[in-house]
Amino acid sequence: MFLHGGNLAWNHVHKFCGKSTATFKFSSSLSLGLTIIKLASATTCSVKRYHSTYSGVKMARVAVIGGGAAGIAAARELSVEGHDLCVFEQGDSSGGVWVYDPNVEPFPGAESKETLVHSSMYYSLRTNLPRELMSFLDLPFTPEYMQKAMKQDGTENCNVTDKRRYPGHEAVLEYIQLYKQHNGLDSKIQYNTTVKSIEPIEDENTSDTSKRKWKVIVEHDGQSKEQIFDAVVVANGHYSRPYVPMIAGSDTFPGLQMHSHSYREPHSFTNKNVVVVGAGASGEDISRELSKVANSVYLCSRKFKDDFQLIDGYNNLFKAAGLMQLNEQRTATFTNNQQLTDVDVIMYCTGYDYKMPFFKESVVHVTGGKCIDNLWEHLLHVKYGASLSFIGLVWKIVPFQCFQLQSRLVAQALSGKITLPTLTPNEVDDPDEAHHLIVQWPYIYNIANYTNTTLPSWREAMYEQNKINKVKRPEQYRDIQDDKEEQENALSQFKTLF
Question: Given 49, 320, 410, 481, which residue has the most CB atoms within 10 angstroms?
Fold first, then answer.
């Protein structure tokens, strides 16, 4: 059974333990109570974590900024805790960066409203993590359980079109929207709504951050509206404002320069000589795709020191050192002083900046586009506590489980179920570097511990197997795997959810 906060409705009843029978008794008041009453059988069914057993819950009115996966996770956890929430989504549907948009921005990314494109999704993108790992904690992202959820929701067409274990972006969007529907969250989302301003309402008579109020100004259909909230959850993503490094001579280069944010398909690069800057996940995937049509592709990175090196399995895809300089003769010079002539395209796969345009700098300061200052655990603002949180700033993570665990901590901190320690900001060695890049599993377990959530062990084990397999089969890891034991453990755990 998935109980929705203070509502008197649920989507479905969980499978009970053994053959015992259970009756759920709960109050419609804002202080949600949930009690299991023993009947004839001496065996009782334990209630999953998703059913709030805390009495005396404080309800907060919460604004959630963004209706992507992070915003949907926040809405789910806030709803479980009985909070009154509103999700503001600038697009006409949920899904955030997973909503494919064929439109692109001018290089290096215009700032005018008319040209901003949120999605960075390219047409052929497939996940680099398996479905099991991509799952939220309470609804498996596997075809079998997606179909079960659809049937429980009364969906007429319960087909899952892309059943691959590493599916395309359309399947991820389908899953996010199913999760939203299955948990009754759509009514809590205001679409086509742009957040213009978020400001704290200062109360000089109290230093209690739990009494903080926030003024949020939004725009919908050309009309501005001011609303007051107890808390704000920022979940606006960080894959939409491309970061382009300063390369000497780039302003004189006559060829095409673009960021992967605006890459959609490879055909326009046919017979071109392409330099791909950045060897992260996007750089690797895009360079391989371009090699199928381009004359030559050079994947360059500061971590490569040697001369041009042909990548195994290709006759036109090379590793190169970091890009250092460009010139008007279409020559690229690399950090090891090698040069490449007749370059047609520079493709920057160099990541993204964090952008919070709705905050004044005095409220939320972003250093160098890379670091949100004064955050505890990359999550809560030290000054404002749980009344101002940021979901999903950290990266190189298993995303959906992280979003949900962070959101759970915020929701329970707002309700008073958990007491937070004294908030101290993250240490910042160099704010111009990847400040929110964290060591994943220690961070995840720490966040989970605050809400007494135990992650099943197969999740980390499967993640490590995926890393090994990606090195072993860089071209085929999405289609050939060796983690049968981890898959079986995941499916065994999923059975306890339905």
Answer: 410
Which one of 268-272, 370-374, 439-443 scores highest in mean pLDDT? 268-272
Q: Phi, psi at residue 385, to the nearest 5°? A: 60, -150
CA-to-CA distance for 293 and 281, rounded, in angstroms?
20
- Listed in sequence order, the residues at least 6 apart from 44 whose beta carbon sits closer than 8 Å to its beta carbon are 17, 20, 22, 36, 38
CA-CA distances (angstroms) from residue 220 to 153, 193, 198, 256? Answer: 30, 5, 16, 37
Partners of 334 in the β-ladder: 323
Q: Which pLDDT score, from 0 to 100, does residue 107 have?
A: 80
SS3 376: strand
Question: Please, where are the H alpha helices in 309-457?
Answer: 399-415, 440-450
How far apart CA 3 and CA 11 sit, in angstroms, is 7
385-390 vs 231-234, strand pairing mode: parallel
d(CA 182, CA 56): 27
- Integer Cα distance of 236 and 90 in angstroms: 10
Cα dist from 42 to 14, 21, 34, 38, whole Å: 19, 10, 19, 7
Average pLDDT over residues 69-87: 97
| 9: pLDDT strictly greater than 60 | no
Using CA atoms, how far apart are residues 402 and 422, in angstroms rounded to an integer? 22
Backbone angles phi and psi of 15, in degrees to 5: -65, 125
Segment 330-352, tens digit of pLDDT = 999 999 999 999 999 999 999 99
pLDDT at 120 over 60: yes
Q: Residue 34: what pLDDT? A: 30
pTM listed for this prediction: 0.85
3-state secondary structure of 348: strand
In Å, how far are 118, 362, 367, 385 from 466, measured between CA atoms? 29, 42, 33, 36
Q: Which tokens sit at 244?
A: 């382009």
Q: How far is CA 133 from CA 74, 157, 400, 490, 491, in A?
A: 19, 25, 8, 9, 11
